[in-house]
Structures are given as C-alpha cells and as structure tokens.
Amino acid sequence: SMKEQEDKLRASTTLYVGNLSFFTTEDQIHHLFSKSGDVKRCIIGLDRFTKTPCGFCFVEYYRRADAEDALRYVNGTRLDERVIRCDWDAGFIEGRQYGRG
Amino acid sequence: ESEQESGPSDIEKRLDSLITRLGERSNASLETNIRNLAKVLSGDIANFKDAILNILLKCSTTMPEKISIYTCLAGVLNTENYTFGGEFVDGLARRFRDLLSAGAYRQAELVLRVIADCVNSNLVSASSLLMFMEVLLEVTYEKNVPQVRSDWYAFAVLSCMPWMGERMNFSKPDGLRKLLEEVLSYITRRKKVHVAALRVIKSDDPLPQEDYLDSLWTQVEDLKNRQWREKHILRPYTSLDSSLSKGQAHNLPQIIPPSYEEDHQYPLPRVVFRLFDYTDCPEGTVLPPMNSIERFLIEDDLTRLIDQHHEDRKQCAVVLLNYPTAQPNIPIDYIVTEVVLGQLMQLPKSPHKEVMYGSMILELCKVRQDVMLQTLALAVSLLYERIEHLNISSLHRLASWFAYHLSNYEFRWTWEDWSDCLQVDKDHPKARFVTEIIQNCVRLSYYGRIAEIVPQRFKVFLPDEPFLRQKFDVENPETIEGVKQALEVHEAARDKKEVTRILEIIKEVPRPEGTSETDFNPLQIEVFVHVILGMYAKTFTHLFTALNKYAPVMRDLLTGEQEQIFFLQSLYDCFVNREYTIIVLIDRLLRMQLVDATSVVNWIFSPEMSMYFSDHHVWEILQQTIHRVSTLVQKSQSELNEARARSKEAADAEVVREEDAVEALEEALDRSLSQQKSMFLVIFQRFVMAFTDYLEQQGVKGKPTDSSWWKTAIGHMQYILMTNYELIRPYNSTLEKLVFTKEIDRAILHAYNEYAAMLS
Fold this sequence. Notes:
- The complex is a heterodimer.
- By secondary structure, chain A is α+β, with helices and mostly antiparallel strands.
- Chain A is built from three helices and seven strands, in the order αβαββαββββ.
- Chain A has helices at 2-11, 26-33, 64-73, and strands spanning 14-18, 39-47, 53-61, 78-79, 82-83, 85-89, 98-99.
- Chain B is an all-alpha fold.
- Chain B has a two-stranded antiparallel ribbon with strand order 1-2.
- The radius of gyration of chain B is 31 Å and the shape is elongated.
- Chain B starts with a helix and ends with a helix.
- The model of chain B has no long low-confidence stretch (mean pLDDT 93).
- The A-B interface holds A 23, 25-28, 30-32, 35-36, 38, 41-44, 69, 72-74, 76-81 and B 311-313, 353-356, 358-360, 362, 404, 407-408, 410, 443-446, 539-541, 544, 580-581, 584, 631.
C-alpha cells in the first residue's frame, strides 16, 4: 500500500541513481558515493534484453545518515560529465536491475 | 475554549515572523524599524510576555550577524518595561549557564557576546558585566585542568571585546584594562606545543599561520589602538542612545562556571588558515587585514553560517556569498574561499564531511560564476606554490577535493602552469600532489579518459594502466609449480563445482621446495588469489560474490597472521595498479573477519611494502582499517546496549535467555575493544621501528630528518594520530608507557607530543 511504501522509503538506506552514462562503471560509482559514507553495494541497472548498462543504478549504504548525505552532496553533481540524479528507493529486490528493454 | 487555544498560536506565529525578520532589507531605516516593532511589542507584552521573551532570546542567540539589532530592541523595550528587560537579561544568563553545563561551547560563545552587547543598549550595567567576565577568567588560573578548558574561557571573553570594548573603555577603563591584562597573562603562559601540528601551512612565509588565541589577541590589540572603533558590527543603539539612556540597566546574575567535566568536548585549539593577502585581491577591493578585528568577525560569522546551512548546499552558497558587510568593496568571495578551504584542510580533521565542501564549492561557482572560478584557481595556485609546507593530511584532502572539482568541469585545467613539478624529484611534494590529483581523477573517471586529458609531458604522473597479473600461466602448464592444480581449480570453479571440492584441489597443491612442513604453503594461497579472485576481478559485485561464496576456503587457508599477510601481498601483486580495488577488498575482508586488523597493519609495514611507504594509498588502507575496527566496536556497543535494555524489560520466563545474550555481547565487545587496542599498539610500534631503522641506516651523515622520506613518513604518523584522535585518546597513557617512551629518538617523540598536546 501507499503507507507501507512511504514507511519503507523513510527507513531506506538505498538510493536510486539516474542519468548515468552507459559507460560509467561500478568502481566509479562506488568511489564517488563512498565520499558520504560506507557503501554496502552498487547494483548497475541493465537493459532487459541486451543485459548492458542503461543509465541507472542502486546504491545501498549501511547507514541511513550516509545515504542522506549522498542525497545532499552527491545528487546533482557530475559523474562522467553527466548530472546525476538521486532519490530514495524502497530497497533493491533481485530483478529490479533490469530496466525497460 | 478551543478558539482560545488556536488564537494565541496565530498571534505567536505573527510575532515570531515580525521579530525574526527584523533587520532584513527594508525601505525604512533600521532604527525606525526597531522603534516601530518595539511599539507593537509593548502592546502585546501584557498578554504574550513569555512568547515574546522566548522569541527574542532565540533570535538574539542564533543569528550572529544580528546580535546588536536584538539587544537594541530589548533595550528599547526595557525603557518602557523594566521587568521585561530584567527577564530578558536573566534569560540570557540562564541560557549561558545551561549551555556551559551541557558542554555546548560554540553556542555559549554566541550567548556571551549577546550578554556583552547588552551593555550598549543600557540593559546591563558596566560594572556587573565586568564582574561577570572576571569570574569567567578565573578558570584560567585553575590547576590540573586541560588547557582546552582554560583556552575556551579566555577565548570566549576575548571574543566579546568587539561588542563591549568601546563602551567599557568609556565607562570602566580601568576595569577593562585589568580584564585584558588577565587575558594577556594567560596567553603568555599557556603551552603551545600543539601549534605546529595544527598548522595547515607550516611556514609563516608569506603569511603567518597563527594560533587562534594569539591571532585574536593581536586583532583585539589593534582594535584597542583604534580606540575600539570597529567597522563591522551594526550599531543601531548609537542613534537611539538618548531614548535608551532613559531606561535603567540591570545587574547580571553571577554565573559560576561549572567545574571541569572529563567527558565534555571542549573545542580543540586551531590555527587560523591564511591564504590571501590584500595584494592577491582585485583592484578596488579592500580585504580587511588579518590583524584587524573585522577579519575575525566576518570569518566567525561565515563559519557559523556553514554550520547552520551545510545541509542545503545551494542555500549555504547563497548566504555565504551574500553575506552583508558594513563596508563596501570587501572581496567576500576571497574570504569565503579562504574559510571554506581552511575548513576542508583543517586539523586534526575537517568539521564536516569533505564531500560537503566539494559540492558546496560547486554551488559557490554557480552562484557567482563571474568571480568564483577565478578566485578558486588563484587559491589552488597559491596552495601549489606553498605545497612543500602543507601538512600531509591537508595535502591529501586538497588533492582529493581538487580531482572531484575537476571531474565536475570536464577535467579542464592548465596543467602547464605547474610544469616546474616536472623538474623535481618524484618524492617532492609538488610531484606528489600532482600524482595524487591524477590518481584521484582516474578513480572518478576511467583510465583512458584521464590519459587523454593529461598533457604529454605530464604523463609521467599518470599511473600505469591497471591489469591482472596471472601467475599461473595455464597455456604453459610446465612453467611453474602448482599450475596443474590451478588449472583444475579454474575448471572446477567454472563448472560451478562445490566449494569443498575446490578446497580439496587447493590442498593438493604441492609444497614448494625450501619450505618446511610446519610452514604454511604459500602456493595454495596464490592459487586461490590468482585463479578464483582473478576470475571474479571484473567488478566489486563480482568480487564480493566470490568472497561470500569462498569464505570457507579462506577461513581454512588464512588461519594465522603469516598466512594473512602473505594473502594480502598476493592480492596486491595480482591486482596491479588497482589501488582502489585493494582498499575496498581489504575493507570487506575485515568486515567479514576473514583477515585481522593487525595482519593488515603488519603487512603495510612489511619489507615487501616498504617501497610504497610514501604512497597515499597505503595510508588509505590503514585509515580504512582503523575505521572498520572502530565501527565494529561501535556496533558491538550498541548491540549490547539494546540487549541490556531488553533484558531489563524481559518477562520472567525470558530473563535467563536475555541475560545470556547480554553476556555473549559483553564478550563480543571485549573482543572488539582488545582488537582495537592491539591494532593501535601495533601501528605505532611499527612506525617507531621504521623510523628507528631509518635513523640507524642513515647514521650521522647529514640530517636524516631533513629528507623527503622522513618528512612524509613522520607526516603520515601524525596524520593517523590526528585523524583518529578521538579513538586513540583513551590509549594515550598505554602508548606513552609502551611505545612513545623516553628511550626513542627525540624527533619521533616530538611528533607524538604535538598530537598529545592538542588535547591536553
């Protein structure tokens, strides 16, 4: 439900990161996002059919406060010349890395 | 009745907004606005006294740039309503006392300035203010308290002088003189061992980098010599003087400073970072000299604005660059740049996360693109010129920030301006700085891209391209021992065979000649690293999968410290030029407790790694290790706290189970604490050993402590000490007993003493 979804977002430690270049690697994302705190994992979004990166990823932190800082300080800055956009995500579930084909 | 409840809150909101907005841009003069607001408020005081009092107290003590506006408003109200004025003064004094008891020193400073400023609007009597300040200064005579405590009291009183100096000089000149003499006597007798370690720039040429109290003293002395006329603070009470004098001043209640509290975090001493001189600023602008009080007042306000607004970087950039100054032509972008870069590089560490400064600087550039990019470029080139004197910790932060900044500007930079770094030794700080910037650029981008943007001549600073060194050449199975098993492991892993099967094959790896039965078999570890981790080397996700899957294999192979050290070295040899991968991998291994922190430390100090001793990434690994161990301690601590709380509330049937849980967690906490302690002991023992060896090798020829190696190495020890001071502090006495003893070389001991003095 809407309420459950909202509660999940409020407790989430995961960010959705969009507008990435297709060539941006996991290492780069990990390095940039580690600047606000310990990153648990990055999951690169893949095209459903070609299984190649398609411009988004999920970044999961250990601590909520570090994810908040990423939203404050990394969101809207550039990575590989592109202004990246971050938002809260309710949490990564296997299968969600496949974007629209 | 419900109407009554909702009624006041609307009026309170209106009052809050009226009072908060006082002093904002308006067509009428400030004095008129104060008078008008006072008229409105005196009508409302009868019904909303508490609300008005609270709003006024809140506004006056949280908006540093508007202190005098609110004391003036309170002063006007006092002429009409003596009781109200008295309650305002008492409220301030009480707030000051509460903040001291809570250890909120930065806020307490501000409240003290409001109290001091009350003398100007005839709210507080000059004699009671003098007494109030004298009592505070008595702390500077306390025996056996850390200097950070007495420092704070001296600083807090001295920083009130711009507000109270002129008036006190007029009404109580002798009292003021005595107060200042006491501050001076404290400043001359206080210890200054810590200052060297806190200097971002270790040279006073071209600009002196002064201890914060010394600097403020010079500024106040200059102010005194100008008959206390400063040019920054708004003085609305001057033109309202005739009506204010009709009021009657109150006597401040006496506040006895609470006694020393061990767990209070007194502000650490600082060194004021100086980068720009007036000659660096554009023509037509006037940078207040650094020995003028105006420079202090602006910088202090900017620092408070950053603390207030840092969570909203856009807003923060706007308020900083639009900071109102009374004098025209003050190059605020220069002062902002100096304050922001000074905080980024501040020692022992920056007050906020480094990335905050990076992204706020990007916003500053958006708000005033016309000036900020140039000002920043100038700042960076001035720092480059002084890089030899830059503290190591500050240098790392500067390089990391600058690479981040460049990554937001398509890596455009006039590298040729720095061509003198091509003429120096590769260990020279200039060369080191450029190397670190380029390495950080590679991490934020990718190798090929940075190879493209770095000019040909600067390619010497580009790291070699990363690659995977595969020790076991499966094409030529005869070349080396263990290849047969390496091949089998490769096939078994590819065919997704059981992990136990893979361990079996690894166990069949023959023992290389020359190793005895009791030793571990290094080839087994190498087969695991080069074959299994090699297969998963593509990304962190792959590597983390491998660590999870093959954790049982590693637990079997890495039972002792020697095995773990050899394993770390194999990783390092396999992932060539992939320092960031190594840092992240080791962190994960520590988190999974597959390797011990002391093994990482001993590996870093091993002969195999000695050639990288001056490279930043080695110290990044160590920093990350300390960070990881300390988070394990924190985690155990909070788990224990939760379990204790649960056990208190547990029902009878569950008591035993909960108590067992508490006991287990207590043991876990003990283990993590002893791991932390031994880690720090080993780190500093190894540092001291490395330094002692170096001094012995160099003998008496020349001065070994002048060499680049020495400066970098000792700098890194201080970097570790200072950055982790909160963690290391509890072990100081142990360290002094076991490691930093009188027997070791004085140059080593001195580096430690500078750190220890910072906290004492």
